[in-house]
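Might you be able to review the protein record set out just below?
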Amino acid sequence: MIKKKIAILGSTGSIGKSSLDVINLNKNKFNIILLSANSNFKEIKNQIKTYRPKYFVVTNLIVYEKIVKKFRNKKVKILRKFTELPSKIKFDITIAAIVGIAGLEPTIQFTKQSKKILLANKESIICGWHIISKIIKKNKTEVVPIDSEHFSIKQLTNGYKNADIKKIYITASGGPFLKRPFHSFNKIKPKDAYKHPNWSMGKKISIDSSNLMNKILELIEAYKIFLFDPKKYEIIIHPQSLIHAIVLFKNGQSKFLYHDTDMRIPISNAIYDNQVDIKNIIKKNNNFLDKLKNIEFMKVDKKRFPIVTFINNKFLSKSAPIILNASNEVLVDSFIKNKIPYNGIFNTLNRVFKDRDFGKYAVKKTPGIYEIYKIDKWARKKTLQLISRNYEKFI
């Protein structure tokens, strides 16, 4: 049996580690050629020893130098940049799970070098889908989104056209603050926002989940990946996080996709084309009927989650999503470092969108890589300026 060649971009994150768990259960079917990470020295060291990939890309210079020193005489080739990888190397499957804008260029590169790409890097889709989609078409690369919501939409709408669909609901858990009193929001600390009630995720995505920014980003992704009318999408609160998308069809039927809060389920199905027995991967009982007993859905409260007010053409069209994404990254980082309060994320985003230069950067329809970075840079700089200007209000 010829083993499938695998690359995992962002292998030390939650998606990367879940992917390794799935792949590691069938070592005879896969050959891990490349892993990549940024700065988690301990985990990088562990993965090199455990999986022995042919290449390991370490993008953080300080960590790279430490790893090179540690594994100087080993067979694993430690690279500083993705561009150091020979272009002739082809992969059967690449899992693109780098967090942030740093994942854009690697995702573009590996879309060219892979037969199949499993997409979990929001920023690649939000900022550069117009570039990636052309490469997909040219190279006939198979693309499977593995965020649970987009994976579900893809599964539910296969074979259907826009004319067949009445409504598409993307579900949101509501995070840790769904029932928290409004008056205490100014006291929310980063550690409070990390405590997602259902999922185990990184700090940034947990904060995005707590205020529903992750759902705004997911809507933008859905608009770009799927050829359905954007007006058909709606966010709905579903505290149990068991149903990830609901599709209402014009023929009177409705379908939803259910799976437990374990990312190994969409990852496994994406890797194995739905031909997988999940009990071989996840060793636990799934009390499906018991869990459905207390299932609930509710409308999004815009006072509790004011970020959903950004769902309109001005903020979600052309290059405005690049600004939204970059500004949010800066704000989440500032909140983690206790430089702004929790409510400062929405309030500062609002100021960025009202800035007199916003229109100049938000109108690019198909920006190239250079323009994407230029727009991203402006948004980050403007956000930091606003944080600095309002510092006294925040403390």
